[in-house]
Amino acid sequence: MIYPIVIYGAPQLRAECTPLAPGQLDTKQLIADMFLTLESAEGVGLAAPQIGKNIRLFIIDCTPWGDEHPELAECRRAFINPEIYWLSPETKLYNEGCLSLPGLHEDVHRSLSLRMRYLDADFVEHDEEFTGLQAWVIQHEYDHLQGIVFTDRLSPLRRNLIKSKLLNLAKGKFRCTYKTR
């Protein structure tokens, strides 16, 4: 099933998500559906709140970048109940977009690496370090679980400059090629 993407202005994007317990729902099917939704929208990351689910789950699929970055050729993963507990002080400016904010791209500072505990699709616990593009995508999706969108990370001046674009998104004035709600 391909889910419609929740667009900026919807309250689901501002709610802090709750942990997901084993057996709470058909997690593997939800993850498969999220990957279908992500592929349909041509994105690299998708968090559960972006499909209207208030649970601590996100997926990433960086394989489209695999030609230029061979380390990402197999980077397709699900993260359940993630907890970032360390961010490197070194940052890089990344130009970000978001399926929930179609047509909007802005430069955001993100840490170059992070350490995170999480559960995989089988609810097996992991503790890993992620760097580079993976760390960037993970930080973006992790923010969604906290009720944060990437424009919240912009300076007040920059946010003010894009205020009308954000208002248009909230009013439903946008175009995109994937299903939305």
What does this structure look like?
It is a single chain. The protein is α+β, with helices and mostly antiparallel strands and 181 residues long. It has a single domain, classed as Peptide Deformylase. 24% of the residues lie in helices and 25% in strands. The protein has helices at 27-41, 132-145, 156-161, 163-170, and strands at 45-47, 57-61, 76-87, 91-96, 106-111, 113-119, 125-131. The strands form 2 sheets. It has a 5-stranded antiparallel beta sheet with strand order 1-2-3-6-7, sandwiched between helices. It has a two-stranded antiparallel ribbon with strand order 4-5. Strand 6 and strand 7 form a beta hairpin. The two termini are 15 Å apart.
CATH architect. name: Alpha-Beta Complex
3D shape: globular
Helix content: 10-25%
Mean of residue pLDDT values: 96
Q: Please give the number of β-strands.
A: 7
CATH class: Alpha Beta
> Major sheet: order of its strands?
1-2-3-6-7
* Major sheet summary line: 5 strands, antiparallel
Total number of distinct structural domains:
1
Rg from Cα: 16 Å
Share in β-strands: 25-35%
Element-by-element helix/strand order: HEEEEEEEHHH
Assembly annotation? single chain
Give the count of helical stretches. Answer: 4
CATH level-4 homologous superfamily: Peptide deformylase
How far the N terminus sits from the C terminus, by CA atoms, comes to 15 Å
CATH fold title: Peptide Deformylase
Low-confidence stretches: none
Question: What structural class do the secondary elements suggest?
Answer: alpha+beta
